[in-house]
Each structure stands twice: as C-alpha cells, then as structure tokens.
C-alpha cells in the first residue's frame, strides 16, 4: 500500500483513490465530475473547491477532512457552521413553508446522518443537517396523524446527529437545547426504546455541567422505565443505559454503583451481537470499551484495569470510528497516569488516525498532549507537531 501523502490535496486524493482501488475514471464517475478535472487536481494543476472535495470524499467513502490540505480547516468549518444548527431549531414549532420529501427519502437522509455521526464525520453533518432539520420540522407539522410517530423518530435521530457536533465542539448550551428537542419529539414517536436512547444522550448535559450524581439518578430512573429486555433492541437499550450509568458513577466517585452497572451491562451485552441499536453501538466490544472508560473515570487508583484490558484486547475495526478513537483517548490517559508517556503518545496517534475530527477537538487530547510535551523533551519535534495540531497549550 502506498504511504500516506504529507501535503497537497491532489496527492491526498490520489492516495485514497489507490487505497480504494479505483481508477481516475471510476472515481470521477462516482463523484460526478469530469475525469479531466480529477486529473488536473491530482497533479496539482488546479485546486478543488469545497463542493468538489465533498463529492470526491463521498465517492471514496471518507470524511472531507482527510483530503483537506490543512485539517484545521475542517475544525474551523465545523465551528463556523454551528450557528446554522442553532438557527435551524429556533422555530422548530413554527417551520417556514417549503418542500418536504416523501418518508422513504427522509428516512434515507437521516440514516446517512447517523452514519456520519458514528464515523465522526462532523463536516458532513454541519453541511447537511440544518436543511434536513428544517425539512423534518415541516414534515412533523404537516404530516397526517398516522405518520407522526415515524417522522418524530426521524426528527429525534437527526437532532442526535446535530447534538454530536454541538457537544463535541463545546457548544453545550446548543447541545442541551437539542437534547430537549429530542425529548419533545419522543412522545410523538411513542417508542420506549427511543426514549431510552434519548436518556442515554441526555447524560451529556450532566457531564458538561459536572453534575454526575444527578446524571446517575436520571439514568437509573431511565433504566427503571425502559422496556423489558425481551428482544435484542430492548436488551441493547437497557444495556446501553447501564454502560452510561457506570461511567457517570465513576465520575461521581461511586465505585460500587460503577461496578454494579458495569456488571449488568456486561451481562446484557453477552446476550446480543455487537451492532447499532437505536443509533447506539452495543454488545460485548462496546461494554469492554466502557470498562476502560469506567476505570479512567474512577481515577488514577483504578487505571490498572484499563491497562489490563488493553494488553489483551483492541477494538475491532467494525466498531464505529468515534467509539474506537474514544477507547484510545481514554487508554492514553490511563497510560499517562501510569508513567507510560511513550505508550500514551502512541495511543493518541492511533486515535487521530481512526477519527481525526473527534480526536483533534477532544479536551482530554489537548490536555494530555500538553502534558506529554512538557514531559518528553527528547521527542520534541513530533510532540510539538501533534500538540499544535490539536491546539494543546
């Protein structure tokens, strides 16, 4: 396999095209651009605007940030687009007039947004979600009563994808508003599994506010009213709540509650295959990743648990990119606390390779990169480059 290019959008496109085993003609056809245009871009004879970059990235099945000459551009574009998400939900109950696609087309568009969220492709979300949310609010306002549950489920799912961007990029007030809109849509859907999924997402507001004990109470209440675990979707919904409760119990310093919820998540995870259920990854591998999260949440006296897991296991590539990168970000913190700075830096680089946008704007990545930069003078050049990439201070 050719080595990854270090600069130039044309070389980056050529690299990813070769990885995908596509000819220039095949990629041009898939991206719906002229092959001559692609040839000129690849050899550096012309630039590529945002529309062309996104079309090529979509044809390659990758995030546009992997093609940009400076990946910082991706982060800047996401942050600049966040106000558009806020504007899209401002009049959720009074949508303007406009077109509304048929339900199957809306379902496909929302499914695509879920795929972007799980793959941490935030540029795509910010480009497409404002218009999609507006359209879904129109659909919810105008749809006949029998279609309301389906449209409400779609709206809640799209709001969750928008929330992923708001929360990851520190727009916590917007994130809280998006979560409340998910909760507003849930009764229309009349779906207990969706309600459980929204309770899972709502935990972000407690993380952001540092109110971990309150978040644990909210999750335990959600477990109490969740559908009984009679089928895989219900088992996964309940298990995901236990996973989340274990982590926030760890942040609250409640070791017993963390271990109890983790044990229940493990028991439920063993009953279903690893998959995406109601927009959340759940199964044995996801539980294993949350074991690492719980160990790190409990603090430095417990990080040996995370290191023991990492010695014998790594997240399989079938898991969502965001979850896999999160594993290595958490592992890096455990390694740093354990006096293993070389291992910690390697874990951060793996996280970056898996999901660059998720890693670059993660608060822990910035903190740990800054600490590593102070500790490891011998490898100053590569550490400095990484620290500058994630804006570590």
Structure description:
The protein has 393 residues and is mainly alpha-helical. It has 4 domains: 1-69, lambda repressor-like DNA-binding domains (434 Repressor (Amino-terminal Domain), Orthogonal Bundle); 71-187; 191-298; 304-393. Helices cover 72% and strands 2% of the residues. The chain contains 20 helices and 2 strands. Helix 6 packs antiparallel against helix 7, helix 7 packs antiparallel against helix 8 and helix 8 packs parallel to helix 10 (192-209). Mean pLDDT is 91; it is low at 1-7.
List the helices and strands and how they pair.
Elements: H1 9-19, H2 24-31, H3 35-42, H4 50-60, H5 72-90, H6 103-118, H7 122-142, H8 148-168, H9 172-189, H10 192-209, H11 212-225, H12 232-251, H13 255-269, E1 275-277, E2 280-282, H14 284-298, H15 303-312, H16 321-337, H17 341-354, H18 356-360, H19 363-375, H20 380-389
Antiparallel strand pairs: 1-2
Helix pairs in contact: 2-3, 2-4, 5-7, 6-7, 6-8, 7-8, 8-9, 8-10, 9-10, 10-11, 10-12, 11-12, 12-13, 12-14, 13-14, 14-15, 14-16, 15-16, 16-17, 16-19, 17-19, 19-20
In short:
With 393 residues, this protein is an all-alpha fold. It has helices at residues 9-19, 24-31, 35-42, 50-60, 72-90, 103-118, 122-142, 148-168, 172-189, 192-209, 212-225, 232-251, 255-269, 284-298, 303-312, 321-337, 341-354, 356-360, 363-375, 380-389, and strands spanning 275-277, 280-282.
Mean pLDDT: 91
Strand tally: 2
Helix-strand sequence? HHHHHHHHHHHHHEEHHHHHHH
- Portion of residues in beta strands equals under 5%
The biggest sheet amounts to:
2 strands, antiparallel
Helical percentage: over 70%
Content-based structural category: mainly alpha
Shape summary: globular
Number of domains: 4
Rg, nearest Å: 22 Å
Q: Outline the low-pLDDT stretches.
A: 1-7
List the total number of helices.
Answer: 20
- In whole angstroms, the N-to-C terminal distance is 35 Å
Strand order in the sheet with the most strands = 1-2
